[in-house]
Amino acid sequence: MRVEPIAPAEAMRTLRDALPLRTERLVLRTLRPDDLDAVRAYRNAPGQRRWTYNRDQTEAELMAWTAGGAPVYLRDGDAAQLGIELDGRLVGDLMLRITSLAGRQFELGWMIAADAQRKGIATEAARAALQLAWAMGAHRVIADLDEENVASRIVAERLGMAVEARLVENEVNPATGELGTALILAVRRDAA
Asked: 77 and 97 in contact (C-beta within 8 Å)?
């Protein structure tokens, strides 16, 4: 079966037309400069970086993260970082990355502030982002998780994702200094 690549202009137009994206309780929108303090608080909170395989973000990185502007999808790896609002308060963010324009594949990732976890926020936001990925032309969407991140695995499975790969001790986690094992979960549009 021949597959046409995702057209970057069409993907960006679809995303821009969808934002801000409203769910039953949430608003997904681009991050902006006035989000800096909230993003710093939940992204650099003790224990949060454990699941992102990154060190704490510097002030300059956080400023770039929250600079605002329209998301750009021109090449593989380009991503939109969307803020997740609950009752007007930023409680997390969600990444929507194109991993392959030619293969029509996206990746989803999410981070929720500790005080907002276990309330279905990640599932609700990720479900909306998955629908947005389908609208942008995705054929397959993945989540790349640390095997010990049980909460995010539950979210991915609620989206219909299944484990496709287990990469044993494939990367050193800067937050812990230990080797971590990754799970790749995925769902195809025709299976969703």
From this structure: yes
Give the start-to-end residue ranges of the domains of the chain: 8-139
pLDDT > 70: what percent of the chain?
Answer: 98
Structure confidence by residue, pLDDT tens digits, 30-56: 999 999 999 999 988 877 767 776 777
- At 53 the pLDDT is 66
Residue 64 C-alpha from the chain's centroid: 17
- C-alpha to C-alpha distance for 124 and 100, rounded to whole angstroms: 25
pTM of the complete model = 0.94
Residue type, 92: G
C-alpha–C-alpha distance, residues 55 and 78, integer Å: 21
How do 89-100 and 105-112 pair as beta strands?
A: antiparallel
The CATH number assigned to the domain with range 8-139 reads 3.40.630.30
| Identity at 53, one-letter amino acid code | Y
Q: What is the C-alpha radius of gyration for the chain, rounded to an integer number of angstroms? A: 16
Rounded to whole angstroms, what are the CA distances from 106 to 16, 171, 185? 17, 21, 12
Residue 192 is predicted with a pLDDT of: 67
